[in-house]
Amino acid sequence: MAAEPVSVSRATNIHSKFRSFTRNINDKSQAKLLFYSRIRASKKYSIDDKNNVYKQLGLFSLKKKIEDTVLRAEMLTPTALELEEARRIKREEMIRECNLWEDPIKSNEILIKLAGSAKVVDALKDLKYKAEEAKLISQLVEMEAINYPLFKQAYIASLDVRKLLDQYEMSRLLKGPYDKQGACLVIRAGSKGFNPEIWTEELLNMYVKWAAKLGYKGRLVEQHASMQGGVKLATIEFEFECAYGYLSGERGIHHKINSQNGSVHHEVTTACVDVVPLFLGTGVDIQIDEELIVSCSPSLLKDEKSHTELTVCLQHIPTGISVQSSGERSHFANKVKALNRLKAKLLVIAEEQKVCDVNSIRRDDIVDMWQKETRRYVSHPYKVVKDVETGIELPDLNSILDGNINPLIGAHINIRRTD
Fold first, then answer.
1. Which SUPFAM superfamilies match (predicted)?
2. What are 331-365's pLDDT values in tens digits?
3. Taking the mean position of all CA atoms in its chain, how far away is CA 69?
């Protein structure tokens, strides 16, 4: 009986020391490690207990995202893989039945589609593998109670899965005749606002970062700097499939709006974005009478004599459409590039006007990109991005300028699909 007070006293002393120890822990990571060790000491948990643990660690939402992404992949991938495998097999049969030498043009089209099908199948297999990896790691986390490095690995794997899912689903919605092509994107600084050249450079960086997040690289072929800093004109080529389908909704005026010190007067800075298809593996399928194309003075380059000597600017007389190229190393290469851009732009306009060829384009109905407002980026007094055509609003301006524009792109694709 005498031993009991001693044990109680010792327990009280230990408890007091433990409380003193935990009060002195200021580092969050140390507190987490202590919490993990206490969790591992338990032998059994209920599902609710585990969810409570995740909540206390601030990881419950991440756990839910991993589970939702894996479930989404498990529902989509088998059906999509079966469908794309069937398409690939069908195109392989068409190749075997087709005489490649009798009709080279048709054979080339089938080969391009077959290569595309093979890429989609490989991407879906990769998606399936990554989903299984994320699921397996999540299960290992459950077995080990909480293992933060494993949990982080599962979350990173789920992000890859989500990115592949989003890309596949968006690509399936692209039904336009040129949506599968690459893209040539041109950004021009406006004449209004404070330092429009700086704003143009911000947009340029936004699109380059967007491509990098998809695992691609935008090729900057033209960049004309301003004496005051920033960029007056920039041209980027995205040489990957579906780039035009993704970016065609970006065409038009991009406004940056700023209101200082609560003033009712807004400072608006403008830049104009234009996008034309960049045909991958094939030439532009259109013939234009050379007499209808003339050389004209290049814009924005009057003070850049070194560039002007190589720059080619072409104008299509019936429509008034003009394009330029100055990024190549020779005058001839710039002429070829400019001609391809002009043809691509005319094809897009003909498609928009629903006419059979470029000769039927109605000049008065051509949309002036400088008159088409696309997006507003509000930087003060609050930060928000408003897409004019789709009506979507996103609260994180900095994230958008960091290249996270897929929600905006997806909204435009859905609008086009509905139309």
1. Release factor
2. 899 999 999 999 999 999 999 999 988 889 999 99
3. 19
Tokens at 33, concatenated: 């490690």
The vertex-78 CA angle with 77 and 83, nearest 5°, equals 95
Same domain, 218 and 360: yes
From 173, 194, 220, the end of a domain falls on: 173
Residue 55 resides in a domain? no
Domain that residue 330 falls in = 182-418
d(CA 327, CA 222): 5
Q: What is the pLDDT of residues 248-281, one digit of tens each?
A: 999 999 999 987 655 556 788 999 999 999 987 6
Phi, psi of 406 (to 5 degrees): -60, -40
Domain co-membership, 204 together with 289: yes
Question: Each residue of 183-215: pLDDT tens digit?
Answer: 999 999 998 767 899 999 999 999 999 999 888
Where among 173, 204, 226 does a domain terminate?
A: 173
What CA–CA distances, in Å, run from 155 to 13, 62, 221, 247, 291? 42, 7, 37, 29, 59
Cα–Cα distance between 244 and 42 in angstroms, integer? 55
Q: How far apart are CA 229 and CA 110, in angstroms?
A: 48
112 and 219 housed in the same domain: no
User: Which pair of structure tokens corresponds to residue 186?
Assistant: 């041109």
Beta bridge partners of 258: 267, 380
Q: SS3 breakdown of the chain: % helix, strand, coil, rounded to 5? A: 55, 15, 25
